[in-house]
Amino acid sequence: MSYPVGRSPFLGRLLAGLVAAGAAACAAWALLGAGPGARWLGAAACAVSAALALGWWWRAPAGLLDWDGNAWRWSPQSGIQADGGTVDVTLDCQRALLLRWRGEGRAHWFWLDRSRAPARWDALRRAVYSPAPPGEHPRAGTPPARP
Predict the structure, then answer these.
(1) How many structural domains does the chain have?
(2) Intra-chain end-to-end CA distance of the chain, in Å
(3) Phi, psi (rounded to 5 degrees) for 137
(4) pLDDT digit of tens for each residue in the chain (147 aa)?
């Protein structure tokens, strides 16, 4: 089972909603009597937060997440060699999943969206909730430790 990873429309909408809520809160605060300096500071904080959120969403990892029934593999779109590792479900929104990938390098966070591959969504959900087979090492390509 393979599933494409990339920028999540669900996460994009969620971040846009949070930015809009923050901007509305800053506007309400300004209208309720915040001083001129505080208004500018609030507006700057909203703008910086929005830019950071957009940049984080834009740089979301892209590639392919594979499950062969025994091990997970992450193949970045950049063409770097596939990496074996484990996935942990952090948030399940039914139509979107937030997964934490732990491979050979640093951890990655993947927002997976049903809209990216609807025909494979149910298989992905079954795979992420399935336990690893007994006796299998969680990282593909890494031999088990010897006593």
Answers:
(1) 1
(2) 34
(3) -80, 135
(4) 999 999 989 889 999 999 999 889 888 888 888 788 888 888 898 899 999 999 988 988 899 999 988 889 988 887 776 778 899 999 999 999 999 999 887 788 999 999 999 999 999 999 999 876 666 545 444 444 444
Instruction: Tell me if 58 sits within 8 A of 85, measured CB to CB.
Output: no
Please report whether residue 147 resides in a domain: no
Put simply, whether the predicted model's pTM sits higher than 0.85 gets the answer no
143 in any annotated domain: no
Name the residue range of residue 125's domain. Answer: 1-133
Name 135's Cβ contacts closer than 8 Å, sequence gap at least 6: none
The encoded tokens of residue 72 equal: 């997970």
User: Could you give the CA distance from residue 124 to residue 128 in angstroms, rounded to a whole number?
Assistant: 6
Q: If you write DSSP's letter for every residue of the chain in order, what string do you get?
A: -EEEE---HHHHHHHHHHHHHHHHHHHHHHHTT--HHHHHHHHHHHHHHHHHHHHHHHT---EEEEE-SS-EEEEETT-PPPEEEEEEEEEE-SSEEEEEEE-SSS-EEEEEEGGG-HHHHHHHHHHHHSPPPTT--SBTT-PPPP-
